[in-house]
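Reading a protein record of the kind used here takes little practice once its layout is understood. An example of such a record is reproduced below.
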Amino acid sequence: MTSIGILGCAGRMGRSLIAAGLDAGATIAGGTERPGAPAQGIDLGTLAGREPIGVFVTDDTPALFAAADVVIDFTAPVAAPSHATMAGKTGKALVIGTTGLSADQQAAIAAAAAHVAIVQAANFSLGVNLLAALTRKVAAVLGPAQWDIEVVEMHHRHKVDAPSGTALALGRAAAEGRGVDLDAVSDRVRDGHTGARTAGNIGFATLRGGDVVGEHSVIFAADGERLELTHKATDRGIFARGAVHAAIWAADKPAGIYDMADVLDIG
């Protein structure tokens, strides 16, 4: 059985990851929270609403990496480089679901991936990853001269980054389908008198409110017709189950950066 460690285990995603790991038959090696957090010392099984498993929340990250075969990180961008570096030094596979990373933070992850397997994804749901694959294929067929692309996403009021990592991943998929660099054609802000839409640009619209788990649409719009590809998440558990699946898959893989297309073999 794969032994999984969970960073930031007391949050909503952390608790879902514990439950998903137990449901998948994995061993939960441990979970960490920041020093002084209220969850310190609580049994991880209890934390996830299950029977106690005899493993307790600590703030000892090195011990977590030492005990686990693979570690899952859904914490914060500022912590991602140190977690990746620790994975590289200990030879433990790492699954990263943290989004909103800077170029420097991403570079630290890439450096660690030279020594260990790292699965990094903006979204771990099967449906979203199929959506990305479909977006890539459709964008390759529908040319920029006639078809405009807009990515629309909505999340709960507490989400701190925008556009979402998943929306950006869908934008990258569309750009890849057209053989262009997303940074060169991305249109993320419209306010005031913006003028006509630039042909070939990929637009983003961000909505925030309520308790929306995550909704993403890629809209292909032409004169006289429109094609919309949409995914709506209603249960945060789909992300946790996908991340645990990725962790079990990554435990024995060679060093490198992988994504969910690799895990699911949907290229």
